[in-house]
Amino acid sequence: MLRVDTATNTSNRTIDCIAEEVPLQITLNNLHAFVIWCSPSQFEELAVGHLFAEDLLQSVDEIENITVNPTNNTCQVTLKANINLEERIKNQRTSTRIVPLIKTSTSAYQKDDKLATVQSNLTIKAQTIIDAISQINQKAHGFKETGGLHDSAIFQADGTMVAFSEDVGRHNTVDKVIGEGVLKKIDFTQCFLIITGRVPGDMIYKAAKAGLPIVASVAAVLNSGVDSAQKANITLIGFVRNKHMNIYTCPQRITL
């Protein structure tokens, strides 16, 4: 790499770390296959989290087997024989990240009827969220090396981190930590989610499906995220920086 400094009109050759992405092919019961571009890590968690968040998997107990091949970037998920996968595929939500041209609406959320409503009595201190951001910053080695990764983590009410991920895609990080939580059989209703990227409605959908009552980000929230969080009864927080935060929905879960 050639680093150029316009202040001194100099340049020098140096080595730089670059974030890597690969195409992960996920196959479900040989009936459903798709590709997600992602960082080459936590393939199993990404597959499980994505399938769970997109209504194709209801519980880790439905999984018969998972085979990951990191050499050719594939993940084969086999569900138990009593699962009617064809029916789930037929009724699957169409991700709002892909909007077919035939649609007459390009609103950020086309299928609010599939948005779950979170039921949780969880309350946490604002300081717990600040401390959680600090924990993420300490673990974000990939971001520190490349500057090209997003991070997500799930914490228990006392601030204990129970799942963490880094990925080139901010949606992927959410899938990965949800997948890790599903595999660990974590009670999401007593946890909160921290992410480093912007928060659109698609991320709120994933959190609502898992039952996560609080979503906080160091970055901005989008209008689709606010609308979906309000409908899903999720506390949505943005701009968690320098001991400050903006609470956009359901502020009763955060105490001072």
Walk me through the topology.
Layout lengths: L1 E4 L4 E4 L8 E7 L3 E7 L4 H11 L9 E7 L4 E6 L5 H6 L33 E2 H14 L1 H6 L3 E7 L4 E7 L2 H15 L6 E5 L5 H10 L3 E4 L5 H10 L2 E7 L2 E4 L6 E2 L1
Parallel strand pairs: 3-6, 7-14, 10-11, 11-12
Antiparallel strand pairs: 1-2, 3-4, 5-6, 8-9, 8-10, 12-13
Amount of helix = 25-40%
Poorly predicted ranges (pLDDT <50, ≥5 residues)? 96-110
Shape: globular
Strand arrangement across the biggest beta sheet: 9-8-10-11-12-13
Distance between the termini: 48 Å
| Alpha carbon gyration radius | 19 Å
Q: Total number of helical segments?
A: 7
How many E-type strands?
14
H/E series: EEEEHEEHEHHEEHEHEHEEE
**Beta-strand percentage range:** 25-35%
Round the mean pLDDT to the nearest integer and report it. Answer: 89
What would you call the structural class? alpha/beta
How would you characterize the largest beta sheet? 6 strands, mixed
Compact overview of the structure:
The chain is α/β, with parallel strands linked by helices. It has seven helices and 14 strands.
